[in-house]
Amino acid sequence: MSDTVTQTPDAAAPKDQAPDYRKTVFLPRTGFPMKGDLPKREPGMLAAWAETKLWDQVRGESKGKTPFVLHDGPPYANGHLHLGHALNKVLKDAINRAHQMAGFDAHYIPGWDCHGLPIEWKVEEGHRKAGRNKDEIPVLQFRAECRAYAEKWLAIQAEEFKRLGVLGDWQNRYATMDFTSEAAIAAEIGRFLMNGALYRGLRPVMWSPVEKTALAEAEIEYHDHKSVTIWVRFPVISGGPAEIAGSSIIIWTTTPWTMPANRAIAYGPEIDYSFIEVTEAAEGARAKPGERLLVAEALLEAFAKETGIAGYTKLGSFKGEDLAGAITAHPLRGQGYDYDVPMLPAEYVTTEAGTGFVHTAPTHGEDDFILGRAHGLEVPDTVGDDGTYNAWVPLFAGLHVFKAADPVCAALEAAGGLLHRNVLVHSYPHSWRSKAPVIYRATPQWFIRMDGPEDIRGKALAAIAATKFIPEQGRNRIGSMVAGRPDWCVSRQRAWGVPIAIFVDRRTGEPLRDPAVMARVVEFFKTEGADAWYARPASDFLGNEYDATQYEQVRDIVDVWFESGSTHAFVLEARGMPWPADLYLEGSDQHRGWFHSSLLEAVGTRGVAPFKAVLTHGFLVDEQGRKMSKSLGNGVEPQDVIEKYGADILRLWVMSSDARDDLSIGPEILKQQGELYRRLRNTLRWLLGSLDGFTDSEILPYDELPELERWVLHRLSELDSLLRGAVESHDWTGVYPAIHHFCATDLSAYYFDVRKDALYCDRPDSLRRRAVRTVLDQLHRCLATWLAPVLVFTAEEAWQTRFGTETSVHTRQFPTIPAEWRNEALAEKWTRLRDIRRLGTTKLEAMRQGGQIGASLQADVTLGFPADTDTLLSAADWADMLIVSTVSLTTADSITAEATVASGEKCARCWRVLPEVDGTTKLCLRCTDAVASGLTCQTAG
């Protein structure tokens, strides 16, 4: 072997020393280079793994072992990978590899989401640039273009994941656009159809006027938005306390555009309301002296100040329940809005802001809709799919709702209904794709019922209680979402996706629930994909039993979250893998996304969750804790990190971080990771160099090892327990920092330093040197395998440097640590020894700083111990511990250490300063024996 390791000058003889004993010193030798050069070396290793079919080797080693299934949540096939992808996939890969090496059969199938709006949006964009209207493109052509777009990016992302070192069944990956996947998704919709949970209903959903489709909660993000706020008079025309006749109920809203859809006013039954008469109005205020108004008592002062009411007289007060039966007029009465507006009780009304009265538009709010349905209110169809008022809406037909504030205010003011207007900047829902604001809009959609006979909500909450969450707070997060969520809207009005492949009886409006029809749908989808729904006539699916003219063929596609929530069915069940999965792992936002949809889908069709455990990681922030954004220019691309540092550095950053919280990254942090990597690599390099020529014949049994070596093995047993605990718990927080600390502090800065002299200068057959090499052998095997899930390239290099390129660390298992290695009493003793050692090294450092010595071997140390205190080690062992020439033990009142310049001559081979050094050979007794043995570094081992 080549490339001599010279970590310290101790082993090299001075140039003027004669004779030359350098060839008799057993210096480390290894072909494992100091510099990782990862960006250049890693691609070659990936090519070698592909050539040797490493994945197949790993699968072969796994046969008959206990399965472990981490089901891959599908990323979206749209663009290059970002750092969030890298974080997620590296964490998954490390956990899979660790389970594999802990003795499990970890079969990992990566997958992709391929349907949905982002891809459709990109394809539409291409047509728009070419001056074509997407609606004029034949649906099958458009879907083919979307499929081609997804295929392109799926292939690119697969190669980028492989470059990260992610090991998986890439040849058998899954995609939601695979024909078999589309068939399975249609079959899962069919399960809900058959069990009665799927229904079509009218209710408000989050709607994107830009994308002209309903959106799921997981497709919504919140940004600041400037809204016009208005205070509006609703004149009381009948009912309620007699004295409020002719007065006005005042509502406050941040959505003036919903006023045409108003059908009621909600009040809080337990809220106290003040009945006032305006006596004075500020200049410019719309309030009129003499008018009488009702507002919540708790909000009265703020209301008066905001609306410019400079003086008022309180005429009385009422409980909300006193207003039962009161009827008001729409403020635009006489202009097409000639209907009564009833006062209705609602528990959701508060006095946190506004007036204590809530304008109710059943078309445009969840609470509004539920209240309206309970009281038989009309649900008016006021706004079209593009966000403009429908042609039959008085005064505002054709106007876009986001441009309606001024016209609505003008109409209200002309009618005497507008009391005040202002502007509010607040958090508002936006589509995460188009970044445009969304609206609540009641439309006919397909829903999965959460309550009722199926009791999906109850079963989901029970499944959450039975699931392990890492970290634990994830349980409450998803639990609260499931407990409070409405029925699941699963329909979308788009083209690229799996259609809700069902038929509706035109005579009854009821969906056709025929298993034979659904079975034909699924079979056609398996061979032709979901395109069959658009290419084939309805009669092909309905068969001879039904008249196709009597049935509506539903053209909505299913929510992509339903698709990804069904992956457990066509990835795990359909492939004969264990179900439920052992682990789902994604970012913490997936409590409302993939975790949520997977839970509801599985519970609704199988009664239990598709996972046993759920692990969530945080999001990415820069070194100042700021969210990464293009505007700040603080983003970090994984491709750039790999090109500069290598994938192993990126992987080390992931596994060195606390993934439960937000993860910081930036240039300085990456430099720090480079330093951590350098220390780990140097540890492996020193082990390899010091094991040059090692054979099993050198191994000593445990009971013949010195205490220091047994202490190292104890530390290995502690780390092994930590590692295996992480495998069991899925919580890897602190594991790899602990391994790095062990390498840097326990090994490099202590054990290697102490035993370097024995390795270099003892004769190779000495028991002490054999004991050291026995432990180094175990250290190498443990560290190479322990680091393999993270430093996949470096660990392989360190393994193959020793055992040959025909082997792979990734087919190995973590070493089995004998129970006898664990020795807490020994650990306590050596903790105390190291504390005493620090007394001596402090004195030695003072001598070095004072110029009395250059190296610790030029000193002698005297250690003092009280008469009744065990010195713990012999004088010779203390000399090894302190790396000095000699140690004297004496009695003292307390444990003390004194250092002096060593007396005697310097041994030309080991550099100890000893009286015994021969004047002619310049060797101490130990080195004389070693040289006389005739063994050299070329023949050792």
Automatic annotation (TrEMBL):
Binds 1 zinc ion per subunit. Residues 45-665 form the Aminoacyl-tRNA synthetase class Ia domain. The keyword Hydrolase does not apply. ATP binds at K630. InterPro entries: aa-tRNA-synth_I_CS (IPR001412), aa-tRNA-synth_Ia (IPR002300), Anticodon_Ile_BEm (IPR033708), Ile-tRNA-ligase (IPR002301), Ile-tRNA-ligase_type1 (IPR023585), Ile-tRNA_ligase (IPR050081), M/V/L/I-tRNA-synth_anticd-bd (IPR013155), Rossmann-like_a/b/a_fold (IPR014729). A motif ('KMSKS' region) lies at residues 627-631. Monomer. This is Isoleucine--tRNA ligase. It comes from Acidisoma silvae.
